[in-house]
Amino acid sequence: MPDRFDLPEDFRWGAATAAYQIEGAVGEDGRGPSVWDVFAARPGAVRDGHTGAVACDHYHRYPEDIELMRGLGLDGYRFSIAWPRVLPTGAGPVNPAGLAFYDRLVDALLAAGITPLPTLFHWDLPQALEDGGGWLHRDTAYRFAEYAAVMADLLGDRVPTWITLNEPFVHTVFGYATGTHAPGRTLMFEALPAAHHQLLGHGLAAAVLHDRGLAAMLSNNLTPVRPASGAAADIAAAQAYDTLHNRLFTDPVLLGRYPDLSVLGVPDDIFGAVHPGDLDLIHTPGLDGLGLNFYNPTRVAAPTAPGLPFDLVDIPDVPHTAFGWPVVPDALRQLLLGLRDTYGKALPPVTITENGCSVPESTTPDQPRIDFMSAHLDALAQAIAEGIDVRGYYTWSLLDNFEWAEGLFSQRFGLVHVDFATQQRTPRASYAWYRDLIAAHRARFAR
Ligand code: BGC
Ligand code: BGC
Q1: pTM score
Q2: Domains of the chain
Q3: C-alpha of residue 110 to centroid of ligand 1, in Å
């Protein structure tokens, strides 16, 4: 294939997954329950009553999955570590069998020539910590730093770069504000202490990693926010949404302060959660890289009913994914340029740690996914040409997997199709496309 993406020689190619979405084996080898095991068991919480109890059975089939990665020619693999597999109650004694799994996984990746990029927290909090208040409880941040130390001591000799948290925005809003994800709390803006405590946990864990000579990244789900019209009320609503989705999770880390939260009606100290010195703990360790998970831009209008200070509205006249998300690839370029405008020199190098789309199972070949990735890589190459430092691209996802509240069958994000009845893996057309793209990129610099 022609290598039409003008990306730098050392650009890294990867794929991403998360523990609860692929591992299965939830009751094996001493793993403790997570909030997702408990939430998914609630009637009606997940489409079709699905759970991640088996998912892709990656816990047992990881050698086969690494072969699929090797076949793609990946430089890196982003996966997450299940905190309750390592520390079944979130704190206290470690579970040697759980540690041994990640030890084997990392060794097998390195043997395949693939750099492991672990995420410490991708939403599967040990249920024992949730029982004590979860991320609404300040101590959870300190337990997270202790867990980070356990993992860094185990794998730091082989794993140089770590991601602390995945998408604290989505976890806070879906998990604690609206309750469509675990732990299923419905606190609306009073959920925001959970955001602060995750950010505090990030800062404490980043310091732990740095003490051991390791690099720390944070993966945020960011979205360029567009007002539905030029009307002042729409612009104000867009600013409120941008504060909640983007700036709340990025300003403290990069700038050492929160944005003006009064636009959300939230007090500066986030209902007493922000203690003196916390912003230093979040900001001072510094960020070695910003992980950017990009799916779609967001269009916002003034609220039509009391409650929230914004309404989210559809973007008409563009394609939509199977999930109903608008496909606007140039929004990725705009987002990257906007990050430079907002943060300037405080913006660290960026890695795209997720980007991809769901396609209905019956779509063969999965051309919409190829088109999605291709157009987003074009937008990325343009942003790089405009001077943004982007180091790599990890597609979401390697495999069809447990898509949270949507269960197993409805939203298929994989380059590889998974038959959940037989665990048969079948690479899709996008798998071959990505493989050829990576090979062509390498060949250009080998000449
Ligand atoms: C998308 C949001 C979406 C959410 C649901 C995010 O990655 O950017 O638009 O609502 O995931 O999982
Ligand atoms: C999450 C993934 C999820 C993907 C698609 C991101 O919000 O990090 O876990 O599967 O979007 O919804």
Answers
A1: 0.96
A2: 12-446 (3.20.20.80)
A3: 32
